[in-house]
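Subject: two folds for Thursday's group meeting

Dear M.,

Sorry for the delay on this. The cluster queue was jammed most of the week, so I only got both jobs back this morning. I'm pasting them in the order they finished. Each block is the input sequence followed by the predicted structure tokens. Could you check whether the formatting survives your parser before we put anything on slides? The first protein is the one we discussed after the seminar.
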Amino acid sequence: MSVALLTGGSAGLGRALAHALATEGWRVIVDARDGDRLATSIAHPDVVAIPGDVTDAEHRRALVAAIQVAAGLDLLVHNASTLGPSSNWLPLLADVSAEDVRQVWDTNVGAPVALTAALLPTLIRSQGTLLTISSDAAVEHYPGWGLYGASKTALDHTTLTFGAENPAITAYAVDPGDMRTQMQQDAFPDEDISDRPLPETVVPHLLALLRSGLPSGRYKAADIPVPERVGR
């Protein structure tokens, strides 16, 4: 059985992807800061929920221990992310403090790098895949999104550098596009975001990418074709 570790699996794209992988026969280990929501988010016997904050070194050690118990790792997905210190406004860069930078960097860059490094030998042995969830804000420049976008740019860079330094693995940084998630609602608290696609619509593109054999790189989920299902 293939094994995946996915951070930020209690809601949105993380929950949708974890459920899809488990349905396809993967053993999936997921984490999230909200333990209660994580415990009820995915009811599947092949999903192991480990509550905790990925920026906490002790929690990361628990995730590594879970992978050791699973005796392998085929897919590492960095999905956990934060907009910043406030969940209902996006500050201009001129108003961002050093503490704001530290908080966002710890979650969006530091923790993924540390966890990847800890699990890298296991991922190399399986010739597995490193997948990080990026954003168009990593390459575009939107007012208020500078801190978050810069962290995603750094995440893209570190992800693809892991791939360049370790050719036995495949490394993907993927822009999923706008989705109807809590993070999007937090970013636009006064807007109706019901026109945005659900995270479940992005998952088939991610699964197609994992099966594609494409080289390491940065991709837009929408650009990955999804094979048509053969009728019964």
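Second protein, same layout:
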Amino acid sequence: MFFVPALPSYGHLYGLNFQEWTNNENNILIQFDTDPHTVTAGQTSEMLFSVQDLQTQQHFNNFTETITITNSDSSSNSGIIHKFESKKISDGDFSQEYTFPNGGTYHILVRIDTAKFISIASFSIFVSSPTFQILNLIYVLLPAMIFIGIIIGVGIIIMRYIYKK
């Protein structure tokens, strides 16, 4: 058996973490992933996209993409955190670097404009924050600390019982 790591690549996205969005009417498949897979607030990450023909799995060529990042916790009415300038894409794959300001759930909207149609896909990602990471560590370590506490407590009770005699 061979182990093949899921690394980001320009081509179709592979691995277990990417998301897909399909539009059967326009025959389009959009794949989305991030690098690193666990996005952390305050650290630059890369959003990876692959736009393909749904039936042939070949890349769509010559379209314009626009990426918008939203968050329902945003103070603005629209929830828009950041909107990138539109770019012309010639080979179906593109990426965008971004540093998410805070932890939480974000929605990545990507608009694809071709000569024949306009299509909008939506993806969700969870951005980890240092506070969340500390709480997560506490929740992971809590059972171990309780178990060690019980062992120490039982050990003290046994020692007191033995030395009482």
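Two things I noticed about the second structure. Confidence is low (pLDDT under 50) at residues 1-11. The longest strand covers residues 118-128.

Cheers,
T.
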